Amino acid sequence: MTTTATRPAAPSTRRHQAVGLASAFGIGMLVAIQSRLNGELGGILGDGIPAALISFGSGLLILLVATAVVPRVRRALANVWRTIRRPMRGYGGLRWWQCLGGVAGAFLVATQSITVSVIGVAVFLVAGVAGQALSSLVVDRLGFGPAGPQPLNAVRVVGALVALVAVGLAVSEQLSHPDGLLLAILPALAGVGTAVQQAINGRVARTASPDAYGAVAAGVVNFLVGTLALALVFVVDLALRGAPRQLPSEPWLYLGGACGVIFISAAAAVVRVVGVFVLGLGTIAGQLIASLFIDVFVPVADKPVTAPVVIGTFLALVAVVVAAVPNLRRS
Fold first, then answer.
1. Per residue in 258-273, is it b (16+ CB within 10 Å) or e — as a string?
2. So what's the pLDDT on residue 127?
């Protein structure tokens, strides 16, 4: 007799999960691009805090314009506000602290701006992935995300370990320089915060609206909270360090906020389909693939593509498949 636990997933469910996983790859690519943009902006300004504020503030401006012109986004935000004011008991409610995912996002962007110009994208990536891959297991197990508690089984643990090995191998030739490695603690903490951010933003999106407008509303909340947090830090930074250097004239350096708008809103929608863990692995693979493409087509600092990078990228894809196949089979 066929039971619910063994019944294959419906075709529509499998399609949704496949689309969600593909979106996770794209999110990872945008994260890698944003890291490069914000890192270079922070290096030019000589201060990562104003660079992070520029990135988050420009993203907030984009979302506020979208909110002004799209009534359904405003209705979705109103749903979030009503739920916070009158929270329901049990799993279906939303507490005020579950709208603070933007603090973790602000910390990630600030970390990009502060550390990438010193330790490089490779070390930033391996430290951030280590924090995200491991913490996403805990976040899913505790049920912080909109899908509720997820089981901690051998397949998910193996997927996390393979992902860590993949990233470590991909950047192994760039980890021989000890300068600035202590700064890797910051992206590791940012990786932990990213898993929590994805989970609670998914909850906000589900509360706001079951469609794409809920994800946009979650992005508005995320960027509003993050911009306010960075503004407070910037006031302190301004008092201690003074004004940053002159703003660069290259317009592409200011696109980090637009990248953030896309991947934060997309992650809030995708996490409801694939869960925090698989979303995290998908973004890991996306970051590796983006880095590989950059090195092939837009080489930076004469860094050629080596065998460890290619093998590490392949292993990251294997890790995603290992973690995602049980989800695709689940009813």
1. bbbbbbbbbbbbbbbb
2. 80
Pick from 22, 13, 98: nearest CA to 321: 22
pLDDT per residue as tens digits for the range 193-203: 988 888 888 88
Short-list 105, 123, 115, CA closest to 38:
115
Locate 197 and state its tokens: 């951010």
Which three-class secondary structure state does DSSP give residue 88? coil
What letters, b where the CB count within 10 A reaches 16 and e where it falls short, cover 292-314? bebbeeeeeeeeeeeeebeebbe
> What single-letter amino acid sits at 231?
A
How many Cα atoms are found within 13 Å in the side-chain-facing hemisphere of 15?
A: 3
- How confident is the model over 83-120, as pLDDT tens digits? 888 765 544 568 888 899 999 989 989 998 888 777 77
pLDDT the model gives residue 4: 42
What local confidence, expressed as pLDDT, does residue 302 receive?
A: 54
Q: How large is the angle between the packed helices 212-241 and 256-297, nearest 10 degrees?
A: 90
**Residue 5 pLDDT level (bands cut at 50, 70, 90):** very low
Phi, psi of 152 (to 5 degrees): -100, 95
Count of beta carbons in the 10 Å neighbourhood of residue 24 = 29
16's tokens: 């949704």
